[in-house]
Amino acid sequence: MACGSCSTKDGQPKGCKNNGTCGTDGCNKLAVFDWLSNMSLPGGIEPFNYVEVRFKNGRKHFYKNTEGLSLTMGDVVATEASPGHDVGVISLTGELVKVQMKKKRVKPDSPEVNKIYRKASQKDIDVWQASREREESMKVRAREIAIKLNLKMKISDIEFQGDGSKATFYYTAEDRVDFRQLIKEFAKEFKTRIEMRQIGFRQEAARLGGIGSCGRELCCSTWLTDFRSVTTSAARYQQLSLNPQKLAGQCGKLKCCLNYELDAYLDALKDFPKQDVKLQTQKGTAVCQKIDIFKGSLWYAYEGEWMNWFELTKDQVKEIIKAAQSKKPVASLEEFSAELEKTSQNDFSNVVGQDSLTRFDKPKKASHKKRRNKKRRRKKPRNNA
Known about the structure:
Elements: E1 8-9, E2 12-13, E3 50-54, E4 60-64, E5 76-80, E6 85-92, H1 95-103, E7 114-119, H2 122-148, E8 154-160, E9 166-172, H3 180-190, E10 193-198, H4 201-208, H5 219-222, H6 232-237, H7 244-247, H8 262-269, E11 279-280, E12 285-292, E13 297-302, E14 310-313, H9 314-325, H10 334-343, H11 368-379
């Protein structure tokens, strides 16, 4: 989803180059499509006077429009902060804000919901942009100071308040960090009010963004807002190899996308027999080695003959288990595996008229006309000198 300024011109993308402050809020991080914007309210109902404001790197808060300002998505506003004021961009207005507040369990009468002062003036925007330009150089210097003090922490991001009166340092650490001396050094170096805020590794990846192994932007920095716990059992249910290098994301934790299809796998596994149940046959005891949820197949091997696997369907496995429970075990797994091979032979036919894939393997035979011309050349008498 892109904003109106990101359209193409002569086949080439223009790009708004607003660096996260798009006029229509279509290219921002964690952007929300207002599907209620074209709907008019019934008569006698006043519009919802709360808005959602986005700050740096997807940080969002809800604010009350006490002054009755005419606000639209993309407007730069000055909001209440402690102390001073902050500057952000309107990311959502109207009735959809009520839905978002209910989803995030934020009550409209909560004291945490501040108010909007005014639309940002040019002076407010200039101060805000000047503060944003200082952040990168400050982050480099802040890391140097933390290393000098031998603190086991990583300063991942710095965010200035809109009026430039306060800087919030976001950091990650394995253990508790005593940063009292660090705050003194920061205040002396940067001449501003300092606030330290510890975030998790997932929140750090969400703030900084990046490209995942799938080739797309990270889910946490584009649309994912709730970080649910991910366990290795999610990978086991989906028959994935427990390789930390493949299962871990850029945050170092298990990938959030392991939970996306987990419910579908759990529903499919309800029809499968349990993998820890051994099959009792007259030939011996077989143990489950592998399952394929999509094909509905299970592979078993006899104890002591681990190299020979037999593919069975889930219905066949249930039949073998039921026979063993009735004390009439089947002879062997081979007879079931042989039945599966017979039924799995597919006879493919050319139903859409494609050319054969081996049509270039054999050389084409000469046509009848060419063969006849060759014979005439051979029979033609030569002129004797």
